[in-house]
Amino acid sequence: MNPISPLKILIICGPTASGKSELALKLAHALDAEIINADSMQIYRGLDIGTAKPSREQQAEISHHLIDVAPPDQQFSAADFAEAADAAIENIASRGKRVIVVGGTGLYIRALVSGLVDSPSGAGELRQALQEEAGRVGNEAMLEKLRQVDPELAAGLHSNNLGRIIRALEVFQLTGIPLSRYQKEHAFASRRYDTLQIGIAVDRALLYARIDERAERMLQEGLLNEVNGLLSAGYGRELKSMRSIGYKETVAHLHGELSLEETARLIKRDTRHYAKRQLTWFKADPDILWFEYPEKFDTILRHAIEFFERGEAYSDVQDTF
Predict the structure, then answer these.
(1) Do 63 and 33 touch, CB atoms closer than 8 A?
(2) Residue 226's domain is classified under what CATH number?
(3) Are residues 143 and 257 in the same domain?
């Protein structure tokens, strides 16, 4: 990859049921783009209904990549995703198309954008702990904590920039490497692509209502049959894919451990909890611009067009919006 002129990619992220897939489709039509999936469960073949995978018609409408690329019993890591996404981006760009990455798996997106040294294993749990600590002691105390381990980086940060403070503390605590040193040694790895990251902002009550409606629709559309077919094919409940939300509850129902009513309740509850964790992750990223959708679709599209069409790196463009 040419570090002087990195490829541009548009990233659509946010919590489950926020409308990411629909927005990506509309943008792909408007921008002559193809879509790369960044949902860790949609990569598995056979997990369709419970992952809200784009329909066959939608996939035929716009080319999608990294959907149905692994059997349910295959381990597929963030590193695997980044490698496969790199290849897909190169392929799409070689054909003169633009690239849209869409999904709610934050670690996948960070691995693609920043590499894995800045996204070590366990980052999600540690980040949440650091955010809770910041809530107790305040931003200035967190900046002082960073000064103790990475004074060079801390010198360039304001206490209001809590997202970057937490990211730097997270990296140091998990790796023992100051983020400033990593950035010097891997000058281009910290920004592997030129990105515009758009997050979908949704009122919490509306989001939870959508989650509940989606869970009911999945059950009506045949989630039980889908899971029963996976079990019959030999994919056991111990697999990571089968322990994902919607599947673990349905497996328990099919084993006689839960009523259908309790299954639906738990899917809704667990999905709401997952959406909250996704929001915590994405809200900590200061590079994400948040917009309501569909209300602000025209604004999102304007940002995307300007991002793709202007020659400057997006870091030089965003202040003009």
Answers:
(1) no
(2) 1.10.287.890
(3) no
Q: List average pLDDT for each run of 10 residues in the chain, which is 321 residues long.
A: 69 97 98 98 98 96 97 90 95 97 94 70 72 93 95 87 87 81 59 90 96 98 98 96 97 98 98 95 92 97 95 39 27
The answer to whether the Cα torsion of 70, 75, 76, 79 is positive or negative is: negative
Euclidean distance between CA atoms 117 and 183, whole angstroms: 10
| Total tally of structural domains belonging to the chain | 3
- Residue 162 sits in which domain range? 123-182
Which residues, other chains included, contact 55 with Cβ-Cβ below 8 Å and sequence gap of 6+?
Answer: none
CATH number of domain containing 133: 1.10.20.140
Is residue 61 within a helix (H) or strand (E), and if so which, with residue range?
A: helix 56-61
